[in-house]
Amino acid sequence: MLALVLSHTVAGAFAILAGVGALVFRKGSPRHRLVGRLFAASLVASALAGSAIALLVDNQFIAFIAGLLTVYLVVSGVLAVSRRNMRGTAAALLVVSAGLALWFYGLSWTASQSTDGKLLGYDAGPYIFLGSVALLALLGDAYALLNMPLSRASALSRHLWRMCFAFFIAAGSLFTGPGASAFPEAVRASGLLSVPEPLILLVMLAWLIRVRVRRGRPVAVS
Q: Which residues does residue 119 pair with via DSSP β-bridges, in sequence order?
């Protein structure tokens, strides 16, 4: 169990640092590809270890399923800009995202129908949020399957939002979720820990607009 905790902590720290670099560096640049690979590998490792800890030790089911969704987003985000992204892969991703969306929305319905309006300590809200992210991914997977091969702008947009949402979930776990307990009380009370999450979404939006608008110069993919 100590190995899981260390893996989750160290890999999570690398993921946060690499995620900042991946957001800042120009998309497709060598530096972006380098830190992007580090971000993807470390975030998957951290999410898997965190899911195991949440399920086996902390009894935090919501953290467990959030970790699974994070892994899916990272893997599908990497595949979005892979030259080996084939129709069979797109179909497999569609099945996974459909399963996740149905599962999460089913959990939200179960929570809403319980006597106290909760399931494993959480009301329907968090389950609906995760289900909505999975549904958005499902719609994107269906579009990708029907429109392959995707244009460069579409592939990069698909890559961007998935990686950024995975980063958003990881940042939430650290700064406003269970990881917030590692910060001093003064920092938690200051409100600073609530800044990274909306900032990630704003930067994601800015890059999405830039990718969709600027189509003249080719962007390298991995």
A: 122
